[in-house]
Design goal:
The protein is an alpha+beta fold and 238 residues long. The protein contains ten helices and four strands. Helix content is 56%, strand content 8%. Strands 2-1-3-4 form a four-stranded mixed sheet. The longest helix has 27 residues.
């Protein structure tokens, strides 16, 4: 019997959440080893399995995989979520790389300084509605299929649904001007493996609250104000 993948991270979304989503969409059961203190994280580092002394790390197929995009690409390829040919893979890569920028904005939003929160939220919603969601609305319209790429579920669809739900946590009506994305959300959410992941009690993690932010700060030694620092990197890419 094949061993379940083992995910090493703290008990929160962060960069591991997209990996949880992709494994769940593929119908793959996985285990989690969640550290809660800096000492537990340092013990993992000292064990020599973290190539860059960073998480996420996933134990799978006898390997200790690190670097989020490398893990996601491996999982997508292994479980048939990475297209049928190089052309489809290129489209999937373009879609997920664009989504990463929006998901990073939302992921870092809870780390905003109090005086920045309103401004940062407005920025996220403006970019979602004018820069990102129009791309995927057009992609669905032009492709004319139930999925972004080809005619079956791919990593791009899973990533898009995850980011849509993240954006709706910022503003419930964020999709009001995007009817095809609204239909997409309903359609992909009803896929049995994904629907199970969306139910209470699954391994999906909730948004960061003050307690989990404090835990993450203690483990990873970062400070608030990371939203603007992260945005400067993203803006520099355009």
């Amino acid at each position: 019997m094949t061993e379940k993948p083992v995910l090493h991270y703290f008990n929160g979304r962060g960069r591991m959440e997209s990996i949880r989503w992709l494994l769940a969409a593929a119908g793959v059961e996985f285990e989690e080893k969640l550290f809660e203190t800096r000492e537990e994280f340092e013990k993992l580092i000292q064990g020599g399995t973290l190539m860059y002394e960073q998480v996420p790390m996933v134990e799978i197929d006898g390997m200790n995989l690190v670097q989020t995009r490398a893990i996601l690409r491996y999982v997508a390829a292994k479980y048939g979520l990475y297209g049928r040919n190089p052309e489809e893979q290129a489209w999937i890569d373009m879609y997920v790389e664009g989504l990463r920028d929006l998901s990073d904005m939302i992921m870092y939003f809870p780390l905003s300084l109090p005086e920045e929160k309103e401004m940062n939220l407005e920025y996220i919603l403006e970019r979602a509605k004018t820069r990102f969601f129009p791309v995927y609305e057009k992609a669905l319209r032009d492709h004319g299929q139930d999925f972004l790429v080809g005619n079956r579920l791919s990593w791009a669809d899973v990533q898009l649904l995850e980011v849509i739900l993240m954006a709706e946590e910022c503003e419930a009506g964020v999709l009001s001007g995007f009817p095809l994305l609204q239909d997409f959300k309903v359609r992909i959410s009803q896929i049995p493996t994904i629907n199970r992941f969306l139910q209470p009690g699954s391994q999906r993690k909730p948004p960061l609250d003050e307690q989990s932010i404090g835990t993450a700060k203690d483990i990873f030694k970062f400070e608030r104000g990371m939203f603007l620092k992260n945005m400067s990197t993203i803006v520099a890419e355009y």
